[in-house]
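idk why but the lab printer keeps eating my pages so im just putting this in chat instead. protein + dihydroflavine-adenine dinucleotide:
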Amino acid sequence: MAVSATKTDVIVIGAGAAGLMCAISAGRRGRRVLLIDHAEKAGKKILISGGGRCNFTNLHTAPDRFISANRHFCISALRRYTQHDFIALVRRHGIAFHEKKLGQLFCDDSARDIVGMLLRECEEAGVTLMLDTTVGRIEKDGGFRVETSGGAFDTESLVIATGGLSIPKMGATGFGYGVAKQFGVEVLPTRAGLVPFTFADADPRNFKDLAGVAFDAEVRCGGASFSEAMLFTHRGLSGPAILQISSYWKDGMPVEIDMLPGAGIEDRLKGLVAERPKAEVKTLLSDLLPRRLALKVTPASFDGRPANRVPEREWQSLTHDLRHWEISPAGTEGYRTAEVTLGGVDTAALSSKTMEARAVPGLYFIGEVVDVTGWLGGYNFQWAWSSGYCAGQFA
Ligand code: FDA
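predcted complex ->
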């Protein structure tokens, strides 16, 4: 005998950033929306994001700050729900915020303000939130039947907003990829992004003795480059510049680090030599780099020689090496600490306007589960808001 099911218009699975926004957007259109999550709280990643202050968007959001097999896919959604739309929402709720740097907007007080705002919006939009609810079988027969620990539901539209694989201990699962596969929607290989690099233990250049040293660098890999702080850790490298470049890195690729970024470094070095001609090279370099790093990277062949006795050719070779310092990470810290998952539901299978699977009417994918990954700095939440809003307009 068929199990009886409650009817609804839209089911959104995953009450994270994208799912909450989608539920609001659909609910505001008068759709009956059921928002389901297996966690006991909505928006758990929002709560821990940005060190508890949630870097909720970036003023400079633009399609070139996103990585995807189809770099044009995100254009439409980012245009239809922009960073300014989200900022206007935040302002309407009286949430104080500030720009920290590079267009990154953070709450003055707490990420809880953003979750509170989204939950209030859900309530006003008449969204029914079901937490602590496990989703079981999903079947399609015209609409969708979704079996859950809270009963079975029939729905016209089903939106998958279950995120990526990063931080499994917070409830991340590959659920969304499974649903995609069940309905024949292609899933591109996934890997951890915005994640620290590790060195092999056996690597003689593993730099463990530099743990804690931070400095500004330009880091390059795979045609991308980022100028920001980087940090040596006990296991490898971290800091914003490294997290950014990690999203462009694949196994075996070298990463190039410019320790003396910016124009005019040769003149600065000449100036230092003129000021202190008898100083050793490593001492002068300590004016430009953290001392522990300067001591480590100055070759022993410079020891005991006054800077003004070092021929031009050797200076050139040293600055070249410091500006093109190449490392080969053994790997990354993986999903355990990654902020995002690269890859995922293939955008080729989705409409960029509605996020609906072209071959499966009524099935939508939004947020991180889709193969669109932003840079560090509020871009990933903006993708969640934009893709969630757009799907909610059609689901
Ligand atoms: P998200 O992961 O937020 O939500 C998915 C939801 O689905 C979760 O609530 C989960 O419980 C639920 N779910 C999963 N499987 C399920 C299943 N089987 N059944 C039911 N529910 C299921 N980005 C940014 O722009 N600014 C920032 O400051 C930060 N900071 C940051 C810090 C840390 C530590 C991390 C790990 C990540 C960030 N990010 C970030 C990235 C950002 O958090 C991420 O890109 C978005 O949360 C993605 O939103 P989604 O809604 O797609 O997934």
